[in-house]
């Protein structure tokens, strides 16, 4: 069973999502939706292997983190300030994101956005890490598809990136106010017809790059692993079981190495996503004070 | 959007399970995905933001802020205490120096007073002793004079008595005294020489 799945077609098959439940077909004509938000058959996926991982991540995060967050050494004044056990790890990450990532960019707005930034980081991290677990291979034994990296799906990463854009624009108007509106035209007013479209394209490009960066990184790692494991099956098919087993030795070793790398990438990409989200939000809400405006403009 | 979600929920109850293999027969598309992923991501992520915001990030953030404040307060109060302690130390050092100087001054003054008193007592004693010696000398001198005078008188009387007995010629009292005075002057002159 596993072999048949592993051997099926291109390595890409192991990385893309596999629907478990879908709506009826041809929604494009029935509901008048755009074709690109539907599957090639015109369906909406209700449940898929990757969606189960999104749900699992949601359950894990909402169950485990509140438990860790309140884990303290004691109840007295000092004890309530000292995390214990695994809560140390959580708080170290939170503290790092707050002090070394968010504060330099967001300054006095740090604590206003830090909850969102923490959520982004841990959500992406959990999805990345869940994607590394061998759920697909295990669930295949039971004839179903569970698991896979949800962040290896452009629709998922794009949704997160669009939420970042929403945070940028919404808070840009709310907190940045006129400064935010003015930043769409950083030059003289007569250049506005040229600069405003450029700035808007810049905004979209940022969000596009943000979603593609995470998606491509996660997908690439998993494709690489699938290709490596595919070597065994190719060798098995072409030169028999001995060849397959011989090839398996370097493949397993390098797969372990790549998995280690993926583990690092899972953290790195979650960090980068959170970092860029912070940076993009700060561009919309943190503006140099009025008395610095001239020198700032001159520097450009 | 609401229409789509309602449709999805309805379909969830009615639709058939898709082929688990997921193979559509076509070429696998790396950008595979659809509105289902978007909606699930949106729902779960917003749920995560709300739930964690209330039950995880809230406590962590308040704990971090509380700890920051506590550390800041502790450091500033430690700094203040240190400054205070240094000031107090300086104050006490000054006081100690003053006390020591005062004590030294007191001891010095005491010694000086004692010296003065000693000298005075010595001087008094010396003066007293001198006076006593002087008085003794004077008394001795007086006694000596008296004795000498008495001796002269006596010897004068004896001489007069002897002389009157010898020459039997009575001298009147005036001549008698003059004779005695002359004799004393002669004696005194002889003694001085």
List strands and helices in order, with pairings.
The complex is a heterodimer of chains A (300) and B (193).
Chain A: H1 2-7, E1 19-22, H2 27-30, E2 45-48, H3 49-69, H4 87-106, H5 110-132, H6 135-141, H7 154-176, H8 178-182, H9 192-285, H10 293-299
Antiparallel strand pairs in A: 1-2
Helix pairs in contact in A: 3-5, 4-5, 4-9, 5-9, 7-9
Chain B: H1 2-14, H2 35-167, H3 173-192
Helix pairs in contact in B: 2-3
Question: How would you characterize this protein structure?
Answer:
The complex is a heterodimer of chains A (300) and B (193). With 300 residues, chain A is mostly helical. Chain A has one domain (2-73, 80-299). Chain A has helices at 2-7, 27-30, 49-69, 87-106, 110-132, 135-141, 154-176, 178-182, 192-285, 293-299; strands at residues 19-22, 45-48. Chain A has a two-stranded antiparallel sheet. Chain A is globular and about 70 Å long. Chain A starts with a helix and ends with a helix. Residues 291-300 of chain A have low confidence and may be disordered. Chain B has a domain at 126-192. Chain B contains three helices and no strands. Chain B has helices at residues 2-14, 35-167, 173-192. In chain B, helix 2 (35-167) packs across helix 3 (173-192). Chain B starts with a helix and ends with a helix. Chains A and B meet through strand 1, strand 2, helix 3, helix 4 and helix 5 of A and helix 1 and helix 2 of B.
Question: Would you summarize the structure shown here?
Answer:
With 300 residues, chain A is mainly α. Chain A is built from 10 helices and 2 strands.
Note the run of SSEs of chain A as H and E.
HEHEHHHHHHHH
The main sheet of chain A comes to: 2 strands, antiparallel
For the largest sheet of chain A, list the strands in their spatial order.
1-2
Tell me, rounded to a whole number, the average pLDDT of chain A: 86
Question: Which features would summarize this protein structure in a list?
Answer:
heterodimer; A: 300 residues; mainly alpha; two-stranded antiparallel ribbon; 10 helices; 2 strands; 70% helix; 3% strand; globular; disordered C terminus; B: 193 residues; 3 helices; 0% strand; rod-shaped
